[in-house]
Design goal:
With about 325 residues, this protein is an alpha/beta fold. Helices cover about 25% and strands about 30% of the residues. Bound molecules: NADPH dihydro-nicotinamide-adenine-dinucleotide phosphate.
Length: about 325
């Protein structure tokens, strides 16, 4: 099968990927953008975004991403609903395989973002996949827990944001944090601490998710969460907390598996770029957004780094005589 060739391929459609596509398209580079498994990225699973400049009344995450998509398409970027499954950065041009086809590219912008982390205690990820009452996305699944008692694990902004949002549905939200102090911003803490539907469990770690077999209306048997076994990290006794739902909000991991062994990463898997730029160690490969940023991780910083990647890419192509 003949591979389709493009000057610029962009992997990812979060704020970084779309902004890179916008700049590359306006520079007449006709970029090809692969959507990946989560079109629109992490903002599509949030609600109100209040800190993206230009929206004085805030904007819904999915709406913001839809606007970006249309803006990018207006300038001729092509967006394909394909997921990259392999990238060979040792070849020139670079070789890219998706779940649907084969491509080559002179330059590559990686904007694959990051995904929610699981606790690694066995059952959490498994139960989330089979509708067992565990989730990493309150806006996606909060509705299913109307009138139920649930728990949220984590002490950062994500955990408090999710927990606060979930109080709209749940009868009670138990926030479980492994320390006695939250990591979240002061504003977020103040809002959460005065929410009457929230109960804070300090110095507690989930040791085990306890489940039961439940029959669905269609007669199917599914394993559902019924309680959490909690360890006291300050040395107190173990306790059991009955809950019907669990939201895991303990941070994110970068989506860099495709590039293992090809690009330099830090110890947690984030791509390394040359300071003050989007350039990786491989000329012609650029990285933008959460995939290379474990510090700021904001939509606006991702968009900014997407812009940097497109400009770096355009200059590199021009230097190589590949821009025309
Ligand atoms: P963070 O890394 O900031 O916080 C992760 C939290 O989970 C920490 O409290 C951490 O505990 C806890 N944790 C980590 N691993 C485990 C584990 N294995 N078991 C139990 N607890 C664990 O991630 P967030 O996703 O909360 O935030 C990421 C970034 O995004 C931050 O910069 C944040 O400010 C930003 N953000 C901003 C928002 C906004 O402004 N509206 C909304 C959401 C996120 P410990 O504290 O002990 O390390």
């Amino acid at each position: 099968m003949n591979a389709t060739h493009r000057k610029v391929v962009i992997i990812g459609t979060g704020p970084a990927g779309y902004t890179a596509a916008l700049y590359a398209a306006r520079a007449n580079l006709a970029p090809l953008v692969f959507e990946g498994a989560q079109p629109g990225g992490q903002l599509t699973i949030t609600t109100e975004v209040e800190n993206f400049p230009g929206f004085r009344h805030g904007v819904q995450g999915p709406e913001l991403m839809e606007e970006m998509r249309h803006q990018v398409q207006r300038f001729g970027a092509e967006i394909r609903a394909e997921t990259v499954v392999q990238a060979d950065l040792g070849a020139r041009p670079f070789r890219i395989a998706t779940d649907q086809g084969a491509y080559t590219a002179d330059a590559l912008i990686i904007a694959t973002g990051a995904s929610a982390k699981w606790m690694g205690i066995g059952k959490d990820e498994e139960l989330s996949r089979q509708g067992g009452g565990v989730s990493a996305c309150a806006t996606c699944d909060g509705f299913f827990f109307r009138g139920k008692e649930i728990a949220v694990v984590g002490g950062g902004d994500t955990a408090l944001e999710e927990a606060t949002y979930l109080t709209k549905f749940a009868s009670r939200v138990n926030l479980i944090h492994r320390r006695d102090r939250l990591r979240a911003s002061k504003a977020m803490q103040e809002r959460a601490l005065k929410n009457e539907k929230m109960v804070f469990h300090w110095n507690k770690a989930v040791e085990e998710i306890l489940t039961e077999q439940v029959q669905t209306p269609s007669g199917e048997k599914v394993e559902k969460i019924r309680a959490l076994r909690l360890r006291d990290t300050a040395g107190g006794p173990e306790t059991e907390l009955p809950v019907q739902g669990l939201f895991v909000a303990i941070g994110h991991k970068p989506n860099t598996e495709l590039f293992a062994g090809q690009l330099a990463m830090d110890e947690t898997g984030y791509l390394q770029v040359q300071p003050g730029s989007s350039r990786t160690a491989i000329p012609g490969v650029f990285a933008a957004g959460d995939v290379q940023d474990h510090v700021y991780r904001q939509a606006i910083t991702a968009a900014g780094s997407g812009c940097m990647a497109a400009i770096d890419c355009e200059r590199w192509l021009a230097e190589q005589g590949l821009a025309e």
